[in-house]
Amino acid sequence: MTTIYIHRIDQVQPLRLSDGTAGTLIPCKTPTGRGFTFTFLNPLHGNFWRASIMDGDVIRVASINGAEQFQIALH
């Protein structure tokens, strides 16, 4: 499981992952509130979107290597 370290959820920010790779968190508005787009620089990690995020959330994502899991760590 790869941990995604997040400092703030109200603005675009660079992400640091426990495996040493990087990405970007992009908050976005939706018709029902807000959501979050996660994009990663490493093509082996699958990008994904979430309606909400909480500390400790575990997210399963399909990637080119099969299913992978991310855990959210809010700081």
From TrEMBL:
The lineage of its organism: Bacteria, Bacillati, Bacillota, Bacilli, Lactobacillales. It comes from the Bacteria. This is Uncharacterized protein.
